[in-house]
């Protein structure tokens, strides 16, 4: 069963990690996909860049894909991405606001530029792209779905994440407010809260075997999450199966949060 058949999906931070999985799974479920990426120089996909690789993977599934480079912290990026998606596919049905960074750093001596960049990408960027997509969805007149990637970190503290956790709490709050603001236009807004997912963001932090074993030991399911675990939930929230889900925040963490209590 294809949950997004004939829909147009926009994914920010879509060339790697969770964003890549969201883009590919959306295509697998029948959607055309517009991908935002920034400074893609990942050579881990052979000779192809990460964004070229994901575009080819989507096209191999029989769906259309476009990719547009841009920093979501720039207000113009969201507007340009929306315009490109409309030009390519004629509409936008779904936004997956996923782009984010997590440069771990101690609180007392965190450089101001690290704090500002984390805030601007994670929270301001989510605001800009959500506003741009919502304006287009309202103009189209047939509703839509916005799913933002928050984090379990919106609910718990982190000693090396005092600049990061507030941004994810902000994304969660943004979706709650947008659910109220945009509900009258048939636009549903929800967030996913990933737990510990194996991605580029935390590869260095989990590179030590003892740290990896510790993290797995806290998760009742006994494993780290895979990006596709998050993508599957995003596809559900974006689909008509979640037609009455609005303003929700769904933990996808293998049971980590309840085990921290």
UniProtKB/TrEMBL annotation:
Catalytic activity: L-rhamnofuranose + NAD(+) = L-rhamnono-1,4-lactone + NADH + H(+); L-rhamnofuranose + NADP(+) = L-rhamnono-1,4-lactone + NADPH + H(+)
Protein's GO biological process: fatty acid biosynthetic process; rhamnose catabolic process
Gene3D superfamilies: NAD(P)-binding Rossmann-like Domain (3.40.50.720)
Enzyme category, top tier: oxidoreductase
Pathway annotation: Carbohydrate degradation; L-rhamnose degradation
Protein name per the record: L-rhamnose 1-dehydrogenase (NAD(P)(+))
SUPFAM superfamilies: NAD(P)-binding Rossmann-fold domains
EC number: 1.1.1.378
